[in-house]
Amino acid sequence: MSIRFIKDKKRFIINTKHTTYAFDVVLDHYLYHTYYGKRTSSLPDPSFHTVSFSPYLPGLSEAQSPDVFPQECSFYGSGDFRPNALRLSTDGTGVSDFVYHSYRIFKGRMALDGLPAARADERTQTLEITLLDSVSGCRLMLYYTVFSDVDVISRYMIVENNGGACATIEKCMSLMLDLNRSDLDMISLYGSHCNELNFQRAALHHGTQSVYSKRGASSHQYNPFIALCDHSANEERGEVYGFNFVYSGSFLNEVDVDQLGHTRVLVGLGSDCFTWRLQPGEVFCSPEAIMTYSPAGIGAMTRNLHRFAREHILPKAAHVPHPVVLNTWEACYFDIDQDKLIRFAKEAGETGFDMLVMDDGWFGLRNHDRAGLGDWYENPAKFPDGLASFVEKIKAQGVKFGIWVEPEMVNPDSELYRAHPDWALQTEGREPLRSRHQLVLDMSNPAVIEYLIDRFDRTFQGIEIDYFKWDMNRHMSNVGSCRLPADKQGEIFFRYMKGVYRLFDWFAARFPNAVIETCSGGGGRYDLGMMPYGIQIWTSDNTDPYARTMIQSSALIAYPAMTMSCHVSNPHENLGSLDYRYKVALGGMLGYELNILNMSEEVKQTIAAQIAQYKSLEHIIRLGDYYSLASPTKYDYSAYYYASSDTRELLLTVIEKRGCPAGSTKRLRIKAARTDALYTNVITGKTYSGEELRAGIRIDLNGTDDSAHLLYLKML
Ligand code: DGJ
To answer: Of 354, 471, 544, 625, which is the active-site residue?
Structure first.
């Protein structure tokens, strides 16, 4: 049993394979968090320390104020002055105080109302804690779902309004974790378009530090993944707590160090882009947030998160080899037509590609980015024989077919906008701001979703699409809906995401044989909320291998290689050799964006050989355990390896960064190697003992701008 209740102590204990999480019901009211860490059976009892200026319930003392002890959930206005998990009321004050009522432990998990959630397996268990607020009449259920094998616990909440008045939720945080320490660093990933996922690590300080998005997408600017770790923690040592949010819209992750030097972590929808009006009898369900703990460094946390994403988040379709695609974007931009792409497909088939992905430019009057979004039917000038006949001809070249869509957007210069200007997000009296010349459709409006369903259904009728690339190329401003009354406008961000998820569900049901690559101008929605719908995510619009080395290395801290689309792009000056770009792209799922029609036979043959080699390695990259040896954020080079689960195969990659000095020799310790085994580098034929690999394999850095080393070590 992962979850237990010890009656005499009123104690809840959650065990995963290597961790324990515990809390007690105290004072017949509060949930006192006592422990999260290495698996143990010796748990501390709650203790209370007096602090003045902290309010307490009549009959109790300052030491029993909710302001001073670690809790499972805290409520605005009821004596806990730290950032709260919930702000809810029926009287406009925002004040509530939910009191422990009961619990339930059950096998598996419940579905989250229209939201993505981690998949249960036969070992999954859930703890439901019910609390009541007597004044509002609301019932609050906290859920703890346990994914024992991967050391992950997820949390979300449901609020049920059983009172007689409308309750307003003004802040909602799915996960709260109080730690009685603050000697920790916080790791987060920040960035911008074409510069996603920069690694940042800084010591916690008193006050609140946060990452957030108010952009309607999880964003390029801050990723929802964060971690806290010992100041001395490295890849192999130290305590590390990892957090993430299974959601793709605006969010807030807060980390607060309080007056006592204790740390509170909150992950959720926040309050800036969220309010919810809950009428009597209605129920609100928050998105799911997750946490993991590792006593053995950042690397072990990463591997927990990777296994969790692979086994519980990504769809089953991600568990077979992903297609090696030739994408038309960087090769053609908007300049596509049927003849050109059929020639692309022919060359692609002969070179060993699995699929041609027709990117932007195929629909409406989409000859540039100022028109056409929303008009999801083929442009007859580019496809005079129609889409169905075109797709047949593509497939006749021996490749599968993928197509780009951006369902959530509309250009003012489009048939759709001219017919339904009220379907774009907007606030009354203000001209909506543009971004990439486009507006955002009001996905909170069911009529918009119905329209898109009908449109795509008709456009792709009788056509076997194998792959969708689902893009989203701007953030939301002027967030208002023509359809909703004033008191519901604060719900749009959340309703929008539920509309998007509904459309994803429709795509999955309507095109059961197709897979999806998600994208938001590259990595603008690189999150666990997108991952259940797609097999991989376009990591960044920046395909410069030097930038990609940094971006991919940071992405891998939180997300498995399986999720990362890595393309070799059009060669232009300073982008390194084809070999270099290929080896950088081997960090994840390989693809290409090159004009195959302009290519010499020699280049085509090189690419054919790369694809063939990749296909022999793909299973280790996609499913293997990831070990970072040298992060390019710290060193002149990047070194990492993937190990197959039986450790019979190891794939070591070393990428020299621009300006990496020549002549230095690195010893790279491959600790996943088996001591008693002999490994052969399949590429060179050289053999190494497992002991030798564990002690450190020597790699001489060349010091040229585009040197990369690849060793495929296999027990033969
Ligand atoms: C942004 C994506 O990230 C690119 O790969 C490409 O699909 C363009 N959009 C097309 O407009």
So the answer is: 471
